[in-house]
Amino acid sequence: xxxxxxxxxxxxxxxxxxxxxxxxxxxxxxxxxxxxxxxxxxxxxxxxxxxxxxxxxxxxxxxxxxxxxxxxxxxxxxxxxxxxxxxxxxxxxxxxxxxxxxxxxxxxxxxxxxxxxxxxxxxxxxxxxxxxxxxxxxxxxxxxxxxxxxxxxxxxxxxxxxxxxxxxxxxxxxxxxxxxxxxxxxxxxxxxxxxxxxxxxxxxxxxxxxxxxxxxxxxxxxxxxxxxxxxxxxxxxxxxxxxxxxxxxxxxxxxxxxxxxxxxxxxxxxxxxxxxxxxxxxxxxxxxxxxxxxxxxxxxxxxxxxxxxxxxxxxxxxxxxxxxxxxxxxxxxxxxxxxxxx
Length: 342
Prior knowledge:
By secondary structure, the chain is an alpha+beta fold. Helices cover 66% and strands 9% of the residues. It is built from 14 helices and 4 strands. Strands 2-3-1-4 form a 4-stranded antiparallel sheet, covered by helices on one side. α5 packs antiparallel against α6 and α5 packs across α12.
């Protein structure tokens, strides 16, 4: 399992209090720590090395213990290895042999809430880089669909940054974070509109002489697409919570958010309104399933706010969000039944 370093910068006069608190928690969490004076002569840096699955519990306890203000600062960063090793197997064996093992919060097999938030925020913020990636991915998707070239379409899927805002929206729901939710919605809306306008413009300018296989595949929605979108969405959320960005490439290809959106714009621009509606239905199905799977997966992974009042707000937001996405999915299924009726 990966390692993390938690660095705490504190005033020098708080050294004894911080050291005592860290020492009291060390037997339960199994970390090592040490203190280093900083150049300003007024501050100390405490560094803690621990397993990544223990980091969230430690960060939560630190926040509760020290009630973070401007005089404290905490930074989390990865570590490749440490010697001597953190011998978790020996600690587990000792606890199993104990006559009265102490109760301990179950370790999360994922990165901490704070680290996850930072990773998701990076992919959720609206920026010039995001806009350029959407433009480039949309142009690549248009070319791939019009040329019926699978390899080019896969390249567009990998380039497209539309997965990030959807994950940000799911995380915002589970954390009851309205600011992140608004940012995710804004970023997703800009990306969707930009891609659709580019594709519609290409459809109007060049038309569609004939229906090829790749375009036809995006003009209909099968029931298997719902299962694929839910499974791929859950896999994408797990990839985020494990801090494994390389896994997201496969998720982007499997979930396929950009091609149906691009196909819908191409069809609309070319005057093929029924096909445009079918491609739009597929895109909406993917988005709804991704967000529904995201909220449920974050909840299963134990992603919740720290304070009890925020947890109560989050539970209410999760229930409302899950209900909304479920109703929308049911409406899409009903629309699919209507469209497929002979």
